[in-house]
Structures are given as C-alpha cells and as structure tokens.
Amino acid sequence: MQWNSTPGARKQAKVWRDSSRHINGEHVEARLVDLEAALGHGFSSRELLLRALTHRSLANERPIAGGATDPAWSPDTEGDNERLEFLGDAILGLVVAEALFKAHPGWREGELTRVRAQLVSRKHMAEVAMAIGLGKHLRLSRGEERGGLRNKATVLSNSMEAVVGALFLDAGLEAVREFVRCHVMGQAAEQLAEELRSGEALGNYKSALQEFTQSARMGTPVYKVKGESGPDHRKRFLVEVRFNAEGVAGQPLAQGRGSTKKLAEQDAARRALELLKTGELEAGAFERDTIGDEEQAIE
Questions:
Q1: pLDDT in tens, 123-137
Q2: Which of 69, 79, 248, 256 lies 20 to 30 Å from 189, alpha-carbon distance?
Q3: Which of 197, 187, 248 is nearest to 220 (CA)?
Q4: Half-sphere exposure of 41 toward its Cβ, with a 13 Å CA cutoff?
C-alpha cells in the first residue's frame, strides 16, 4: 500500500507527531512520570500507557498523517484505547468482585452484586479518574480538545478502564489489585457497605432483580401501582412487579408496599428476588400482600 508522501501529508505528519509527543504543551515523557506516580506503578512498556491515553479522535488522525511511514507510529502505539478499555472493564469487574468477596464473607450474592455494580459504574470510575488527575494526560485531537472532551465523565470513565487494562498487561493482576484497593474501593466501598446495612441505598433491589431476570432470560421486571390507602400525609402504596417479555406483561412475581411508590417498588423487587433465588416462586403464583382495609384500586 502506498502512503501519501506529498508536502501536505508530510506537514500533517509533523502535526500528528507533535500532538503525540505533547499533552497540553508539555512533553509526554515528563507527564507520564506524574501519572505513573498516581497509579503507583512505573510501566515497563510506556507504549501501553500511551495507547491507554489515546482517544480515537487522535488515533484517527494517524493514517492521514502518513501511516506506517510516520516516525511516531509503531505496532504497539497504533490505534486508540478502545481495546484496552474492553480488557480493563473485565479485569476491573473481576478484581472488585474478588475484593468484595474476601472483605464481606457474610454478604449474599445480591448484596455483592449491587455494591460491585456501583463501584465499577461509569460515575464512580469517572470520579476515580478525576481523583488521580487522569484527564490532563489524555491524548485528544485538537477539535475534541476545544470541545471540552477531556473533562467529560464518559471519556474519563472509559479511559480509566483502558489504563486498568494497560496496567494488567504490563504488571499483572497484583498491580491492578493494589490500584483497586487504593483508589476504587477505599472509603467508597465502606460507604456503600454502610448504606447496604442501613437500607438507605435506593435502587439496589430493583437493579439486582433486573440483572437476575435478564441473566436468566426471563424478561424485564415492570412495576404497577395496584392500590393506595391513607390520608395524603400518610399514604401507603401497593405495587406489583411482573415480567415483561417482548412487550407483553407476564405473570406477577410479587407485591410490595411502602410510604412512597419508589419504596413500594423496592419492597416488591426484594420479595420477588428472594422468591426467585429460593425457588419458591411458581408460574402464575406470587406473594400477595395487603395494605389494610382502606386500600383503594387505582384505575
């Protein structure tokens, strides 16, 4: 394959080399030392770390800049960080699951699943990225730089996962475990554990039920208010949860109640999850509940 070697292409190649070697006007090598200190690991292969920091907007400029004839190109630095992101996502889930499993021997599967989901969530991983200053190290095209992509949560989260992937390839699981212990778990894990113990973490049972039913190919849980009672300042709600497969509502799973619709949905999800995991839930059967003689059906 013949690469474009016109003066215009050579000029563009120089632009790409400059953008590859500098981040925000500073030389890459100097900046990588700071990032490695924050990660707690000095990379044997700097090319891995560079690739983990390379957004596709910059990687896409390389072919325009002269391809394999470009001095900034090598088989290790070619491309963006999306493959490393894929790997890092899987490694992160494994290491966090292992850490929770060892730290909380009394937790059941649902509890472990809920806390893990929040620790590896896009929101939390973006917070981890911001805490170590990852954004300033990202390698973006000039257009995306002007657009403020460096500070967007999605980019930060994805890039953090790519760096975890690079860390695993360079130093193995132990290096990832140490990073996770220091930056991903820590106070966040303890806070989530406390919320779980106190029942304050809303959304947990609904999320766990959805994950359970989808993994078992049962469909998606849907919630419907079946009744309410009491005066306005002391309302009680009755909610039913059913499967929804291909847009068709299936058999009821369970009913729950609470002082708000959200709390009633949580209670219904909790009951359904317990019945499904213990095998007590049979087709067409569900645990009926009432909220008193004042219950009123909602049309």
A1: 899 999 999 999 889
A2: 256
A3: 248
A4: 25
Catalytic residue among 70, 89, 111, 265: 89
Query: Is the pTM of the predicted complex or chain greater than 0.90?
Result: no
34 catalytic, yes or no?
no
Domain range for 223 is 204-278
- Cα 69 to Cα 2, 66, 188: the distances in Å are 10, 6, 47
**Which of 274, 263, 288, 264 has the alpha carbon at shortest distance from 212?**
274
Same-domain pairing of 273 and 145: no
| Residue 89 annotated to the active site | yes
Q: 216 and 104 in one domain? A: no
| pLDDT digits 0-9 by tens, 82-128 | 999 999 999 999 999 999 999 989 887 877 887 888 899 888 999 99
Verify that 70 and 192 share a domain, yes or no: yes
CA 227 to chain centre: 36
- CATH code, 16: 1.10.1520.10
